[in-house]
Design brief:
Blueprint: H1 3-7, H2 10-19, H3 27-34, H4 40-65, H5 72-77, H6 81-93, E1 98-102, H7 108-115, E2 119-124, H8 127-139, E3 146-150, E4 163-166, E5 171-172, E6 175-176, H9 187-195, E7 200-205, E8 219-225, E9 228-237, E10 245-250, E11 254-257, E12 272-276, H10 278-282, H11 286-293, E13 296-297, E14 305-307, E15 316-326, H12 329-338, E16 341-348, H13 355-362, E17 368-377, E18 380-388
Parallel strand pairs: 1-2, 1-4, 2-3, 4-7, 8-10, 16-17
Antiparallel strand pairs: 5-6, 7-9, 8-9, 10-11, 12-14, 12-15, 13-14, 15-18, 17-18
Length: about 400
């Protein structure tokens, strides 16, 4: 009996309940106690699953994570629930009622699709991953809407489904894969499959995908959640605008469409600095943000916008700049000491200096807070000091 088989039995579920919330510092003591009444491998399996569930809370929330079953890769590679829900709702809004979810992993996207009222065929070639996906559909009461099939996704007939969703593997034995043609399956195969979908298709790709790798008949959307860029999605078929780009920020959602504006010109720093959301930067829509706030770039090669007025936008965080100086650690340290800055946030774009390295050299002390931007202005290494605009 493998770990998941055991953990789904009454004994396994009871053991999971017993180890729920175990403090890592107490894990050895808990394991020693439980091994007096349970086989050691089963105790290890329960404790391991408890650790994975704890890690999964950030992606799935405590309620779902506490009932689901995970593999280490499954936790690492799953879509965050908020992002999967947004994507599922967009598909549902397009009239999609059935989806072939290819490379389904442990079922995170299938769960979101099913909760949107969409029937799902979830396909993966890993037996263990498929077992986890089945267990999760069952644990969350969605087994009637999710069929899990162990198969090579390239051999699945998707003709019976309204839409196709593909999440190719982007990790290999040496870590992340950056070449879309080295995905498993390759992006070219996924695109070909998307073009055959009867209604719509969505392909999840790395947010760093080169814009030139986006097919001309796809709409490209970059998605961030809570300020962190999570993924890019290539949309085909119904609702997709070929050649269009957009940035979507969660929660919200708030979506900034591309309008084809030319890159804004660089200008002298104004009173305010705007830090565009990472999805905006990845989508190459900094010009749209600059237009919203009436600003320009600090440097032609840096995605920081500067302006003279405070015009709040959901697509960038505004900071009021109080000081500007050439890069000089000693002068920065003296200035911050003079102002009693003990809480120092360091941000950088276009600088080789690591924030933690600078913090160690500064050793801030005092009751006040400040933000330091390490960047370039007209090509020169520059430090801008300020605070979030109010």
């Amino acid at each position: 009996m493998n770990d998941l088989d055991f953990l789904r039995t009454p004994e396994g579920r009871a053991l999971l309940d017993e180890v729920r919330g175990t403090d890592p510092a107490q894990e050895l003591a808990v394991a020693t106690r439980l091994r007096r009444t349970h086989p050691a491998p089963l105790v290890s399996a329960a404790l391991g699953q408890a650790r994975l569930r704890h890690r999964a809370v950030a992606k799935f929330g405590a309620a779902d994570a506490g009932r689901m079953f995970f593999t280490p890769n499954g936790v690492e590679q799953s879509t965050r629930a908020s992002v999967a829900t947004y994507r599922a709702e967009r598909l549902h809004g397009l009239g999609v009622r059935s989806v072939a979810d290819l490379c389904c992993g442990i079922g995170g996207d299938a769960i979101a699709l099913a909760r949107a009222g969409i029937r799902v065929l979830a396909v993966d070639r890993s037996p263990l991953t498929c077992e986890a996906a089945r267990a999760n559909a069952d644990a969350l009461g969605l087994a009637d809407l999710i069929e899990v099939r162990e198969a090579d996704v390239t051999e699945v007939d998707i003709a019976l489904y309204d839409a196709v969703f593909v999440d190719p593997a982007r990790r290999g034995g040496r870590g992340r894969i950056f070449d879309p043609e080295a995905y498993s399956p390759p992006l070219s195969w996924a695109v070909a499959a998307a073009r055959t979908a009867s209604r719509a298709a969505a392909l999840k790709v790395a947010p760093g995908i080169p814009h030139e790798a986006v097919p001309p008949d796809a709409e490209a959307e970059w998605i961030s959640d809570g300020g962190d860029v999570k993924e890019a999605v290539l949309w085909f078929g119904a609702g997709a605008a070929p050649g269009a780009v957009r940035a979507t920020l969660l929660p919200g959602p708030r979506t900034l469409p591309g309008t084809g504006l030319p890159d804004p010109e660089a200008r002298t720093p104004g009173r305010y600095l705007y830090e565009p959301d990472g999805a905006v930067v990845r989508a190459h829509l900094v010009a749209e943000v600059a237009a919203q706030v009436g600003g320009g770039l600090l440097d032609a090669t840096i995605a920081y916008v500067t302006a003279d007025e405070l015009l709040p936008t959901p697509y960038a965080t505004a900071y009021e700049i109080t000081d500007r100086m050439p890069f000089n650690v000693k002068k920065l340290k003296a200035l911050l000491r003079e102002r009693g800055v003990g809480t120092l946030t360091v941000k950088k774009r276009g600088s080789a200096v690591e924030p933690e390295e600078l913090r160690k050299k500064i050793r801030p002390q005092g009751p006040n807070a400040a933000t330091v931007f390490l960047t370039r202005v007209a090509g020169a290494p520059t430090m801008l000091i300020g605070h979030p605009a109010r």
